[in-house]
Amino acid sequence: MSGREETTTGAATEAAALRRLHEARAHSAYDRAVAACRYAGVGRDLAQVVPTDPVGRAANALRLSAESLATLSASAPDPAADARCARNAAATAALAAQVAAAQDGGAPAPATESAPTSLTASASALRAALAASQAAAVAAGGRARGRDATLNASAEEAERHAVAAARAAGWLQALGRAD
């Protein structure tokens, strides 16, 4: 094998590894978005071509994310594009979290020392979703373009935190599972 072939093979291997990382984060964020939308009673049927309210924006973003994930699975690994897909899914999850948190804002449950109010848990989940979206944007942007290990690790950690916060808010139960 020539040096050029080894470099090409190494780059393809790296791109495939980055694909798995970004794709896993994108699917996780999409699952959070679906759960938050279900929690808030938002279905894809509420998507609007030109969204006029948060519900329409969340439903439309959910539809677009689903299409983006399908395209991701069918395309060749491209770390920059894959990171953008993860960024877009995280942004969708942040929109969905805003709708879910707004729903919880209407009638918070009474607080106890051992259990925070649903309003507090929802606010924490919203903050975590926004942080995950920002971390995914940083990992996808600039010169890194999805290849910076430190930025990718930060985005993964922010996604794990967002999943935990969504679980604590009760949003993941809307998917019929407690993961």
SS-derived structural category: mainly alpha
- What is the general shape? globular
Order of helices and strands: HHHHH
The major β-sheet equals: none
Tell me what portion of residues adopts beta-strand conformation. Answer: under 5%
How are the SSEs ordered, and which strands pair?
Blueprint: H1 3-40, H2 54-74, H3 79-104, H4 118-140, H5 149-169
Helix pairs in contact: 1-2, 1-3, 1-5, 2-3, 3-4, 4-5
Features:
5 helices; 179 residues; mainly alpha
Describe the structure.
There is one protein chain. With 179 residues, the chain is mainly α. The chain has five helices and no strands. It has helices spanning 3-40, 54-74, 79-104, 118-140, 149-169. α1 (3-40) runs antiparallel to α2 (54-74), α1 (3-40) runs parallel beside α3 and α4 packs antiparallel against α5. The protein starts with a helix and ends in a 10-residue tail after the last helix. Residues 106-116 have low confidence and may be disordered.
